[in-house]
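I would like you to sit down with the pair of lines that follows and say whether tokens and residues agree.
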Amino acid sequence: MKSQSVQTELFRLITVPVFAACFILASTFFYLQKSHIEDQFSNNKHLATELLNSVVFSNKASTNPFAEAANALLATGDYRSIVVSSATGQQIASYGLPLRTHSYQTQLGVESQWTHEDSLIYSFPLKKSNLQSSTPLWVIIAIDKRSWAISEYQGTITILLAGSLCLFLTFYFARRFRDALATPLQKIETGLRDFLKGNFEKSITIEPSSVFKDLASNINRLGALQKSANDELQLNIDQSTHELRETLETVEIQNIELDIARKSALQASRVKSEFLANTSHEIRTPPKRYIGLFRTSSQN
């Protein structure tokens, strides 16, 4: 369980910063790409507005610098349609792909921009015109968004590929770090557990190229010293036990001899007492007979 927690912590320490860095880079890339697209649209809008307002619009085919400027803009590939219309939505001139009237008719009267299908459309009033009209003319320009969408998709695919590569490298190096750090530490922990249980037969074996080889070698040396100390201590214990057993046997023999001597002494003492008792009785009996006989004689 502890080794699993070490590996999990190692993976977390490696993957979390990488994921955070990938997220920050991806967000920055999308933000910069969006800003680039907005700047590109703003530049195209400014270019078209300045260019078309710098020439005079004319509906004459022979002298129409406006048409030349419009065709030049269409040739760049970013512009899809350029329409000159009245304020009521009546189309006066059209360049490029046809643009439906309903897509811009309700937006005229004020400079604005909007999205219609796959085009980004904006309008502005025309400043120079040789047409006699009570209301100003309006220029409607449609820009193709598909090229920008393709750029966004390409950027997204690039980010996904880069993110996949980063994840692959992250897991690869995390696995390498695990093999280089977590696995040797797990072996060292297992060896220490065996040493704590008193099993000094197994030594810790790790790769010679590991950074923990010196630590494992020192732990093995410490285990060998501890095993030698334990063997010496056990030998001393066995020797002391043997000497103590011999001493106990000697004491037991002495106790038996003392018990036999005590019993012999008691027996001798009992025999002596009986002898003295008998001797005293025999010594006292004759004098008593003589004293009794003498008393009897005196009375007579």
The helical segments are 2-53, 65-75, 146-196, 213-299. The mean pLDDT is 79. The longest strand covers residues 79-85.
